Amino acid sequence: MKQMILIATTLFSGLALAEDCAMTIDSTDTMQFSTSEMVVPASCDSYTVTLKHTGTLPRNIMGHNWVLSKTADAQAIAGDGVGAGLNNDYIKPGDGRVIAYTKVIGGGEETSVTFDVNALSADESYQFFCSFPGHIGVMKGALKVQ
Predict the structure, then answer these.
(1) Using CA atoms, how far apart are residues 51 and 32, in angstroms rounded to an integer?
(2) Do the beta carbons of residue 143 and residue 40 sit within 8 Å?
């Protein structure tokens, strides 16, 4: 019996650890993310963010994406993204300041992105945001590596 409990505990703790390396964030037609802070465990090799758009408006009207960068770069990335347009997901092609991003999605859609946690530093300040024009003002949050 003790062996079965030990095996079950090991299996379930492994599942819990795997879940710690992923997060789902909702976005809405009222320009909001469901969270304003993310904590990424430094023990993860990679981290997956799934973005869901729980609204109903199409991507060209109220589209959202999830972009990760150093906090100091976020505003400039969003500004440059306006010129890049919807076909480029409001991200300037080849922008090296962007750590990770999803495509722009509309109501009822979802998308995911996986990024390398080892490329991040616990000493750096990171921000996630939506680069759809005008959304960064309210659709943003802090990402911490711990």
Answers:
(1) 12
(2) yes
Q: Is 108 left (phi over 0), alpha (psi -120 to 50) or beta?
A: left
The pair of structure tokens assigned to 136 is 């960064």
- For the entire predicted model, the pTM comes to 0.87
Inform me whether the pLDDT recorded for 64 exceeds 50.
yes
Q: DSSP characters for 71-102?
A: GGGHHHHHHHHHHH-GGGTTS-TT-TTEEEEP
Q: d(Cα 49, Cα 100) in Å, to the nearest integer?
A: 10
The upper half-sphere exposure of residue 67, i.e. CA atoms within 13 Å in the direction of its Cβ, equals: 33
Average confidence (pLDDT) over 115-124: 97
Query: What secondary structure letter does DSSP report for 44?
Result: -
What is residue 65's three-state secondary structure? Answer: coil
- pLDDT tens across 19-52, in order? 499 999 999 999 999 999 999 999 999 999 999 9
For residue 12, give every residue at least 6 positions away whose Cβ sits within 8 Å of its Cβ, in sequence order, or none.
none
